[in-house]
Design a protein that fits this description.
The complex is a heterotrimer of chains A (about 120), B (about 290) and C (about 300). By secondary structure, chain A is α/β, with parallel strands linked by helices. Helices cover about 25% and strands about 20% of the residues of chain A. Chain A starts with a strand and ends in a 12-residue tail after the last strand. Chain C is elongated and about 70 Å long. The two termini of chain C are about 15 Å apart. The chains are: A alpha/beta (about 120), B alpha/beta (about 290), C alpha/beta (about 300).
């Protein structure tokens, strides 16, 4: 299974980034082999609409799920349309590796509505 | 004659000054217009008690995609600088609150699948104020981020002013785009400030806007007598006229809190504002900013 | 992940209610409490950043803030067709004889002209529209920013200031981000409130203040942000204070304190001090102390 996790740096041992749209990096991980690849989040530098931009980028990588600390309303709607499942971190995760572990155990909560107010415009 | 009343920071008494000024002017009802352009926090109605007769929605144009014609090419999303339209899965999504209504996606769609519809972000209201002059205000809907189109449409709705008309605009506080939109085109800018370090700092910011549009300015010090000389010193050094000083006075604070204008509290303000207006009309006061 | 860094945002529907004075006092009380609460301050009122005027911090870092890009026409490539002027909905393209230029004050950065120009003469150029700073104040690190007047993107800069405050807070194991929010209910206020654990709304018992309080409460409720209200200058218009309390009761929002009208607040501001540091015995300081005790327990001992 391929999942994407928002990260503060470019490694599977990096800390998670609670934000989705404006996280520094997005890390694509194969949950079986633990092969990973890091991408700069194009949403980070966006003037506005970071969540949409990040979601669009993520959709292009075609993962099965995306995991972050927070999905604003725009990111949520966009990922939903792209048919990508969303999960949020729990208190036990701190690195990307630990997120994968928790995800495989089924200990992360799937998201069924936006988790924050999100930001608007510029 | 368009007079905009503004302040670099909120809560300085901008609305008190604007409403007091309007109520002081003995101009015929039809030729005085009051515009409340502080659309995020419009309060002048509490002082002027208008009877609203007309209301209209403020809409901005947002794209609407005909999913049947759309080929999902993604050109719209590529050109949108605001990420307000995105192709995801087999759908094109529009995010109205991110859209700036620039029309670029509509122009770029190779299939002609995008048309535009109205998205309501606020309302405009119009009717006579209690004193008879014409009153307009814009109100932004809660949760909407963009005040600027409301200010722009409010000014358009109030119409082009001719020479004989007097327009008093209560501008949004600060120095952001909606404030600029409100004061742009004014003949005179009244900057309300208070004698505190905050007031001075924010007065300087507001002056940068006046400089950008070379509008003559006059300063009104509210809550005068707090013991801080910085604003006076700055104005003296910069050659800015301080047109009216409103003292720090508990009865003014209590009166305005109840929705009274300065005239209701101290009738002598009527003459003071009338004189102010006469002087502004003759350009007898105020300073070109920056100074030539 | 241990998410111990809490965010408290101070808001007000209208300006001038005393939001910054309250924020400065809360920072002072947090710093001097026993045990102290380690706070990182974020001045999110980037259009008129005033927290630094009270705290007079030492500037440590300064960074440019690049906002959106604006269109620029290359006069060597422009053939003068005028299509850019036709497509621009912001009236930003100005014709001057056969020459077309972009009015940077009016340009919204939409790039419609860039895509429509048949001569590829228009490019988007990023603009430095402000700066952000990290400073050391008496009561903890302060992240603040300045936006050039009449610039958009204040929401983005607010987000930037908050992010930097958050990173600093996490790296240094601090307890709370204290955010001095912008007035109003628009984009900058939404950006400041976003992600907060708790909002303290400073309301003023004036007809205007009550009107704006209702609007900001609608905003925070719209975004499901837990909000508390304190009433500043509560005794100036007692009927107004009662109305605020009544409104809050109907909406299920707690009023956690009433600060009396007190000239000490203004004097403290003129002297560049937090009111609680300037005169702890003053009525306003005492009221803010009581408010801080409640906020502190809500932020740090809950859960």
């Amino acid at each position: 299974m391929k999942i994407i996790i928002s990260a503060a740096a470019e490694s599977i041992d990096a800390e998670v980034d609670q934000r989705f749209g404006r996280s520094a990096n997005l890390i694509l991980v194969d949950t079986e082999s633990l092969d990973w690849e890091s991408f700069r989040n194009p949403g980070m530098a966006a003037s506005g609409g970071a969540g949409v931009k990040a979601a669009q980028f993520v959709a292009g990588l075609d993962p099965d799920a995306v995991i972050s600390g927070d999905f604003g309303p725009n990111a949520y709607e966009a990922l939903l349309a792209a048919d990508i499942s969303m999960y949020i971190f729990n208190e036990r995760v701190n690195t990307i590796r630990s997120v994968v572990k928790e995800f495989k155990k089924g200990d992360l909560i799937a998201v069924s509505s936006p988790t924050s107010a999100g930001k608007h415009g510029s | 004659m368009i007079i905009a009343v503004a302040s670099g920071k909120g809560g300085t008494g901008k609305t008190t000054v604007a409403t007091s000024l309007a109520r002081s002017l003995d101009v015929q009802g039809a030729s005085l217009l009051f515009l409340d352009a502080d659309v995020e926090a419009p309060n002048s109605h509490l002082f002027l008690k208008p009877e609203i007769e007309h209301t209209r929605d403020v809409g901005v144009r947002i794209p609407e995609v005909n999913q049947e014609i759309c080929s999902l090419c993604g050109k719209c999303a590529e050109v949108c600088q605001y990420h307000a339209i995105a192709v995801l899965g087999k759908k094109v999504l529009v995010f109205p609150q991110l859209c700036h209504s620039c029309g670029s996606c509509t122009l770029m769609c190779p299939e002609g699948a995008i048309s535009e519809k109205q998205n309501v972000i606020g309302v405009l209201e119009h009717g006579p104020a209690q004193d008879g002059f014409r009153y307009f205000r814009g109100v932004m809907n809660v949760g909407e981020p963009m005040a600027l189109p409301i200010v722009r449409l409010l000014k358009q709705w109030a119409g082009e002013s001719d020479e004989s008309q007097v327009v008093v605009i209560d501008a949004p506080p600060g120095t952001s785009c909606p404030m600029v939109e409100a004061v742009c085109g004014a003949d005179f800018l009244l900057l309300v400030t208070e004698p505190t370090p905050f007031g001075l700092h924010d007065l300087k910011l507001a002056l940068q806007i006046a400089a950008k549009f070379t509008i003559p300015v006059g300063v009104i010090i509210n809550r005068d007598g707090l013991g801080y000389q910085g604003v006076d010193e700055f104005c003296a050094e910069a050659g800015l006229s301080i047109i009216i000083r409103i003292p720090f006075d508990r009865s003014i604070a209590e009166g305005t809190a109840r929705g009274r204008t300065l005239l209701d509290i101290y009738p002598s303000y009527k003459t003071a504002f009338q004189n102010l207006f006469k002087e502004i009309s003759n350009y007898g006061v105020g300073s070109r900013w920056p100074r030539p | 992940m241990k998410q111990s860094l809490k965010q408290l945002v101070i808001l007000s529907g209208k300006g001038g209610t005393g939001k910054t004075s309250v924020t400065a006092a809360l920072a002072h009380l947090a710093f001097t409490g026993s045990p102290p609460v380690k706070v990182v301050l974020a001045d999110a009122d980037v259009d008129a950043a005033n927290l630094g005027l009270v705290l007079q911090p030492d500037q440590k870092e300064e960074h440019d803030f690049v906002g959106g890009a604006l269109a620029v026409i290359d006069q060597n490539k422009c053939e003068g067709c005028g299509i850019c002027e036709q497509v621009c909905r912001f009236y930003a393209v100005i014709e001057d004889g056969k020459k077309y230029t972009v009015d940077s004050r009016a340009c919204d950065g939409c790039a419609a002209c860039v895509y429509q120009c048949p001569d590829e003469a228009i490019t988007m150029q990023p603009q430095v529209v402000g700066r952000w700073f990290r400073a050391d104040s008496r009561y903890g690190p302060l992240l603040h920013a300045e936006l050039e007047p009449a610039q958009e993107n204040s929401g983005k800069l607010v987000t930037m200031v908050k992010q930097q405050a958050r990173l600093w807070g996490l790296d240094n194991a601090l307890d709370v981000i204290l955010i001095d929010g912008p007035p109003g209910i628009g984009c900058p206020a939404i950006s400041a409130a976003s992600g907060a654990d708790l909002a303290l709304i400073v309301a003023e018992p004036t007809v205007s203040g009550i009107h704006d309080l209702k609007r900001i409460l609608q905003m925070t409720m719209h975004f499901r942000l837990r909000s508390l209200v304190c009433i500043n200058k509560a005794d100036v218009f007692p009927e107004g204070t009662i109305e605020i309390e009544h409104t809050c009761q109907i909406l299920g929002v707690d009023v956690i304190g009433k600060i009396p009208f007190d000239e000490t607040v203004t004097q403290a501001m003129v002297h560049g001090e937090a009111v609680t540091a300037y005169c702890l015995q003053s009525p306003a300081s005492q009221a803010i102390c009581a408010i801080w005790q409640k906020l502190r327990s809500l932020l740090l001992e809950e859960e």
